[in-house]
Amino acid sequence: MRSDIYYRPVGFLAYRRPARQEEVEVRRRGPPAGLVGLDFSAYEVIERRGGGLLHVTAGNANDFYERDWGSATEPLFEAIERVYAERMPLAGLSLDRVRIMGIVNVTPDSFSDGGALPDAAAAIARALELEAEGADILDIGGESTRPGAAPVPLEEELRRVLPVIEGLAGRTNARLSIDTRKAEVMQRAAAAGADVVNDVSALTYDPAALETVAELERPVVLMHALGDPRTMQDDPRYDHVLLDVFDYLSARVAACEAAGIPRRRIVVDPGIGFGKTLEHNLELMAGVSIFHGLGCPLMIGASRKRFIGTLTGAAEPQARVFGSVAAALAAAAQGAQIVRVHDVAATRQALTVWEAATSGRMRERGPLSAIP
Question: Which residues are catalytic?
Fold first, then answer.
């Protein structure tokens, strides 16, 4: 489902509630419901033209409706309405602040922490530790999808993840997410207590996945990946990575809606590092606010990825903590509602300071000015 025109909010700033009603600026609209504590002051309208050329028009957000967009009005207005659309709670978890998804890999070969959790007991202990550090969601996966990874047989994946989910169900306030491409794993994980489905193939790997998620009535994360993990990094190519990924996710959201999965239960993820070069990843990170035009919560998973190592010289994934935190803050600054990370404590601390410094107040402790 390729589009030829896109709306991207830019110029983000913290939205602060005025102290007195008379100080409220008269605006054409209130702050976007889909952006956590943020508003935007400007926009870009990006148009695809022949020969791969793009035309970008920028303007003041409050003046958008005064522009004459001619035949492009309908898709533009649909995009801006979705930017402002309310984002519903994720499995009962409100999106009133940036939420952290902590990674729990029960795999021997994940790129960063493969083999670190050799059994269910270790994985459960690690998950509870991540919750204590500030994770709102625990993402449990039993199949590595790193570049070059081979598929894991169904029974082996079930053997890895089900005891962890069963062991965590009822013991944690965090939401439990199952990271899988297989419909039967989704189904059995949900029966064991999983609240969310996270599929790196956007429900395309298993033909039964769409119907299964619709029947489960669970939220689902749709991620973009170019090809299979075994080959996705061989020679990834795009006409325009930001727009091509947007079009792919737009088509997957439409497929979900056609299968009975409402947009309010869908989270989108542009798939940093999944079939992307360094340049592709940076272009996605720089323009990630375009995905708010899909009307879904936005998740970014850049933690410890190779592009951070390329930029910083940190060869080992475990040495990329600072770069990973910077990537999470960059995503939050463009309105991402969820960040998927390995290093929960560092990310939570950074987000707490970032939120307070940009909004001028501390969460649950009142305005900063009230603190002596």
Answer: 305, 340
